[in-house]
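Q: I have 404 residues here and want to know how they pack in 3D. Can you give me a structure?
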Amino acid sequence: MKIAILGAGAAGCFAAANIPFDANNEVVVFEKAARAMQKIKVSGGGRCNVTHECFELPALVEKYPRGKQLLKKTFHHFNPSDTIRWFEERGVKLKTEPDGRMFPVSNDSQTIIDCIWGEMMKQKVQVRFHKGVLSIEPKENQYIIHFADKSSYTADKILIATGGFPKKDQYSWIEALPHSIQNPVPSLFTFNLPKHPITELMGVVADASVKIAGTKFKEQGPLLITHWGFSGPAILRCSAWAARALEEKNYHFNISVNWLKEATEEDLREQLISLRQFEGKQLVHHKNPFGLPKRLWEYFVIRIGIAETTRWGDLPAAQQNKLIETLLRDVYEVKGKTTFKEEFVTCGGIELKDIEPQTMQSRKLKGIYFAGEITDVDGITGGFNFQNAWTSAWIAAKGMVNVE
């Protein structure tokens, strides 16, 4: 039996690594680029956020803006515990960071690449680079894959694990099989604030709550100020959940930031009364009672127009109200997004109704399988997208060799 895996990314290579060697089988991975597993290489700042310490299935599926119904079934077969075990059995130990993200103890993504590659070589998998797919031609009980370099390969089974494409026309060769495609739009991107003075604070991180105005989308966590706008987990998670809504707005919208995360106006007013009573002689500029980064606090005080000589006990009511509004409901106009290649995730792809979750086989064409980001599944940051890649690839690998 000839098995073709299209894409040498996380899903494609992990699937290949999980197909046991059989002298009667030929497993070939075809990759459009010149190297394998490049997204693994650059992910997590070069450390590779392999998975997340989220072991309860109901909580785990809530980390995926799209794909929950499929994942409720697939995670029963292979979940974060299985991922940890798979790598540890091959000599790669993972560690958990305070936020639940899991990385190799080596802090080097190459450790993960070498582990998967080593397993592929052990299973005698062939890898061929510079093989961009033009079309797949069904012929009797087989498939002829036509490549851009005018070569072809005839396979009995094909795993499509090419990753997500940013434009729908790039899925045309899959649609022609035929399969339905959910229109792709970017997910996991940062928010641009062109020429906004707060960008001068680039590098400052605050624990905040972010809400996209006029929507239900709200996230909290670290917010990073960059030279172009806002980034960090809170922003990236907002972009994932609101991916389609923000695309419809052409990435022009307002956000409201609560710089005190969960604090309410009642909480804040009580704190300000206490400040007036017990620390009234302290200068507002010097006394930052809310745990905000020093540069951010100074920026707010200057923006509100509080004089350097103003003490907490003498803070005018109008400026106090402005301070409350700034800390709890700080509004920013977002114009555009920035997507990093290493964090690029597509919302959209193969419609999940076309996929059998027990095997990842197409419900439309026997012998065609899918894994990873090519499907309409995407998660928030934290190792969840890699976990879907490992899960779907493992199931597809077993499905291709066990299910006829």
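Q: Anything worth noting?
A: The chain has two domains: 2-186+345-402, 189-276+315-338. The longest helix spans residues 384-402.
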